[in-house]
Design goal:
heterodimer, A: 249 residues, mainly alpha, B: 18 helices, 2 strands
Chain lengths: 249, 341
């Protein structure tokens, strides 16, 4: 009897884990909010002119996602479906306001740089999208896992794009990290050699669009490579069985 | 007897032939440019050509396209010619290299190669350079008549590759272009007629060097019109609008608005009129549309020259009008023979 229970438990645990793994894969890669769904592009394009801005906004977005997915998932069975959107928006807006105030208190300079884009996380379609498409239909634990990995996927794109633009446009990497991690992080800053000529366009709006376009292209290239590798040779007999002689029709 | 079917009139043109015609037509301007500004442009042209060949080969390879036929249609040459005349003759070598690379990759191949690009690659490359390297792009070598110095081939070579030169003082051989000069003077309260009296202008109040290069482009362009390499609507629409606009404003207030000859013979105006806006791929394709497209560019150039942040606005004007091409084409469809409107 006890043995049966144990196998049952182990089975459900491994099922759970594989479920989580699927959610994680979806959030970070398959359905990456920035690269595949192309959601939340306004803050993504506007603030990624260096790494620290991208990281700051990414972490804020991730925290909002975690809070909103948790709360939405908790109230999902108590909210009538006719009024669910206003309720979700109210939850998201409260979470964003809290984050906004927290950042103003503890990360004052970064808050000043990111400016309007912190309150604007409310309008980030990725967050409402996850609340509507996932958290309102799934239990709390899965919603939290989903929020974490979707947030991570968004954060990664922000950081990669920010680093790329900072490197090309200012010739530095991880500059001003002290805004986020305190004085000790000042030494993180890397600089290109002196004879490097920064390409100003990279930190201007066109650089954001071109950089994001390149990232999307890079992801699609990986996908294409993978699908080419996985492609099975065609089974001739199976295909030919499907083709009916013309006279039969 | 051999049976021959229609069409009986045929146009003995190929992409290669048209492109070579354009190159020939640019030769007078190239020689004038060398005469006034030194041999810098030949070095820039060579650098641009090498970059073009390397980048185009790599892009064709990545796109799995046959390399030789696409490389020998010479379509990249017009990008090289268009861009080389726009950058300062003694700009550092990496300026032209990155400009051509950007133009070919982002202006041409990412859209699918020749025939598919919505924007003029040369102007895209120029806009990229202008906003990426504003300092390098405004250090124009002055003509000998203005600076009093003559740069030899060796001098130009050293300047382009090392950025330093000892035989002549660097700050005396480079300076603002006439367009820049007049605009800056205006902002400090100096009227146009006064700034036209400065050393950069000859007795006819047209700028040394720049005017001659523009006239050479006009001559080459006229030859292209006669040999039917370009359509007449582009230069006529462009120059006519420019003349009307500048004449009207100059008549209205000659103190703030420069005369017609100044607008026609400075910057890259003639280059644009005959070599840039005539690009058949990125411009309008209907006869009426070509006219509207060309005069739209002229209006934008005039606006940017007088009230914009940059002294010259051809690149931005061309790129903006490129975006309007689909709409222009849609509303200017010619009547099909046999149908009423």
């Amino acid at each position: 009897m006890t043995q049966l229970n144990q196998t049952n438990l182990r089975f459900s645990l491994s099922a759970k884990l594989s479920q989580y793994r699927q959610i994680a894969r979806n959030g970070v890669w398959e359905n990456n909010q920035a690269l595949v769904a192309l959601l939340g592009l306004c803050p993504l394009l506007a603030v990624t002119n260096n790494t620290v801005n991208g990281l700051g906004l990414g972490l804020a977005t991730m925290t909002v996602l975690l809070t909103s997915n948790l709360l939405v998932s908790l109230v999902r069975n108590h909210v009538a479906s006719e009024i669910r959107i206003p309720v979700f928006v109210a939850i998201i807006a409260s979470a964003v306001t809290a984050i906004d105030l927290w950042m103003e208190a503890y990360l004052y300079t970064l808050h000043g740089i990111l400016g309007i884009f912190i309150p604007l996380i409310v309008t980030n379609c990725a967050i409402l999208g996850r609340a509507e498409a996932f958290a309102s239909k799934n239990p709390v634990d899965q919603s939290l896992v989903d929020a974490f990995f979707v947030g991570l996927g968004f954060l990664l794109v922000l950081v990669i794009l920010g680093s790329f633009r900072e490197l090309m446009g200012s010739g530095t990497l991880f500059a001003q990290m002290d805004l986020l991690f305190g004085e000790a992080a000042k030494s993180l800053k890397l600089s290109m050699p002196d004879d490097f000529h920064p390409i100003l366009m990279a930190i201007l709006p066109p650089g954001a669009f071109i950089g994001l376009g390149l990232l999307v292209a890079l992801k699609n290239m990986f996908e294409q490579r993978k699908s080419e590798l996985n492609r099975q040779p065609l089974d001739i007999t199976e295909v030919s069985a499907d083709i009916k002689p013309i006279s039969a029709s | 007897m051999i049976q021959v079917s229609s069409p009986f009139t045929h146009n003995n043109n190929s992409v290669r032939k048209v492109m070579l015609n354009v190159q020939l037509a640019a030769l007078p301007a190239l020689f004038t440019h060398i005469y006034f500004f030194g041999f810098g442009i030949t070095i820039q042209w060579t650098l641009a050509l090498i970059t073009l060949l390397v980048v185009e080969t790599i892009m064709l390879k990545l796109r799995n396209r046959p390399i030789w036929p696409y490389l020998t249609d010479f379509s990249g040459l017009i990008t090289v010619t268009g861009l080389v005349f726009c950058i300062p003759p003694e700009a550092p070598w990496w300026v032209i290299v990155s400009g051509i690379t950007f133009a070919i990759i982002f202006g041409k191949h990412l859209y699918g190669g020749l025939g598919y690009n919505p924007f003029n690659p040369a102007m895209l490359g120029f806009a990229f350079l202008l906003i990426s390297f504003p300092y390098e792009m405004t250090q124009w070598t002055l003509p000998t008549q203005v600076s009093g110095y003559y740069l030899s081939f060796i001098d130009s070579f050293y300047l382009i590759f090392s950025g330093q030169i000892h035989s002549v003082p660097l700050d005396q051989i480079t300076g603002a272009t006439p367009l820049d000069e007049v605009k800056t003077a205006l902002s400090t309260g100096v009227t146009v007629p006064t700034s036209l009296m400065s050393d950069s202008f000859n007795a006819f109040r047209i700028p040394y060097g720049w005017a001659a290069v523009n006239i050479a482009f006009f001559i080459g362009g006229t030859w292209m019109l006669i040999s039917r390499s370009i359509r007449w609507q582009y230069p006529v629409g462009f120059l006519l609008t420019m003349i009307i606009l500048s004449a009207a404003f100059n008549w209205f207030d000659p103190e703030t608005y420069a005369p017609v000859r100044f607008h026609l013979l400075t910057g890259g105006l003639m280059l644009a009129a005959f070599f840039i806006i005539t690009d058949p791929v990125s411009s309008s394709t209907t006869p009426m549309g070509r006219f509207i497209y060309a005069s739209g560019i002229a209006v934008l150039v005039y606006i940017i020259r007088n009230w914009g942040a940059f002294p010259e606005g051809i690149a931005f004007a061309v790129l903006i009008m490129n975006m309007f091409v689909p709409i222009i084409d849609q509303y200017t469809q010619p009547r099909v023979v046999g149908y009423r409107k």
